[in-house]
């Protein structure tokens, strides 16, 4: 059995194995090594001394699943017991399967505890993303209570900083950058869904890490339930990041022969800053998702929520359909309020039957009108929830997640249905399948508007089973209706991760469509998510969630760098505004192949008030950038904006689009704008940059670059 294995990416290498028969460990994760590198030398170079101050004669190596029984005193990889026994054992590596050149399967056993552990490690050379997963099996007759199983990757000492994610409803994807702490940083989520406040990812980097420069290591846990991420520095010095599902006490009891599989961990290294890291994750996700933007470009949406809320009136909806088609909308989505007795959020959830008070005879009249205007039709569901004021709950009060005898707290006037119960699963599948089979529906907006509290099923914690049942339900509907696209929404960005995106085709990043907030959120989300899956809509002004007012041009450009749509009543716009919307919709259509297939590229700027980003196509012939101001700059003139991702040897024609009202106070435009652009080399555009005009705060402009 070979000791060490080299998994090779295009730009990176991962060397993993074991030379002592213990659990596998990583001895190199970083820059691509030569094919003939002596792998045993890496183990020798990274072998640990035993300092006098250590209480152990030998310092244990950091394995992929660090063991208490080996004297590891940091964040243990495995925690569990069988009636207070079998809780601190030691695994032995029994066998290694080589799955081609890109994947390994390590088979490990603890014969005293009667546990088997299989760890899989793979490298996707097309995107330089490493994946890890593990499966624990109980081989004993006595049940084993599993409390924790996490996967761990080591980081070098030069990974001196951490980027973590936090936020809240209508302010998702806030980032925090900080020095690596002396002990540990812990990010936990116990909300029962991926959560608004703790996107399950961490990025480590060297001091001075930027968009174009420096080393970066990114780790993401692909799981839509509870999670725990830990970045730890041990007292001996080594540091690591561990990712795991967070489990309630007693949530997982493994009977003889039963197994638990961890969520998959996605990890990537970049030696060229955060942009390269993001682009690698984007390529990985594009390979995972059932989404072909070449075969079917992403259609422009109109969603009725902020325009109509629960007030559905057929004549007004039909009028909106006509106005939507005029401004270039390609998919019309009817949001909440069409079913049960749903006049507000107090009632109706669970009663998935058309409310004929609002839609006499069903939804056929509206869908026919949408189709006649050349648009697709989409429909909103919130399948996992039920209102106490509903026919479903009155008939089946036992169908909810609850702990018997206790009050189950309401969230947004609703309970959570127990999807792991076959009768609940079957009811929801039948109801949604009925609408997808009866009507020509191309799209589902799948919402989830509360956290899980007391998530019990038969008295046992059930977040893990609930999450898996949700995946099965979505997968079953997709199998029955493979052409229907599904958006994952949870009061906005509460359920976004790589695993839910294996089953869905779009995310609703936030319920906040204020373009200033969206500029910040979309920028941070782009660290892991490509633009074509980020639902980004043109909002009303003032914004419904913040009350801020923004120009139409700022709203338009913000929405353009995602999956573009409208979230307003188009009928209330002036004719001039409708023409402007139509114009940018046409610009979006012209560029969406580039926007949704190219490399998303964030630009380093010298002023925090300026944010800039763009998309460069694969052969570096075309690019589209946006320059946006988030606040009033600290100086009169914005610093020159250096572009990125271009071919230094190629000549490019540069053009600009400035929406009305974007230009701030200036006596004369700079020469570049006055001459409406020009032709320049990629080298100059990236080393010298473009002098931007004076922009108002919270304004934006487009920079179009095309090779000549």
Automatic annotation (TrEMBL):
One example of a Gene Ontology biological process annotation: carbohydrate catabolic process
Record-annotated Glycosyl hydrolase family 36 N-terminal domain positions: 23-254
GO molecular function, one term: alpha-galactosidase activity
Active-site residue list: 447 (nucleophile), 511 (proton donor)
Catalytic activity as recorded in UniProt: Hydrolysis of terminal, non-reducing alpha-D-galactose residues in alpha-D-galactosides, including galactose oligosaccharides, galactomannans and galactolipids
Record-annotated Glycosyl hydrolase family 36 C-terminal domain positions: 612-694
Keywords (A to Z) from UniProt: Glycosidase, Hydrolase
Annotated substrate binding sites: 169, 335-336, 412, 445-449, 489, 511
Keyword Hydrolase (UniProt): yes
Matches recorded under CDD domains: GH36 (cd14791)
EC number: 3.2.1.22
InterPro entries, per database record: Aldolase_TIM, Alpga-gal_N_sf, Alpha-glycosidase_related, GH, Glyco_hydro_27/36_CS, Glyco_hydro_36, Glyco_hydro_36_C, Glyco_hydro_36_N
UniProt entry tagged with the keyword DNA-binding: no
Coiled coil (residue ranges): none
UniProt-recorded name of the protein: Alpha-galactosidase
Protein's organism: Halomonas nitroreducens
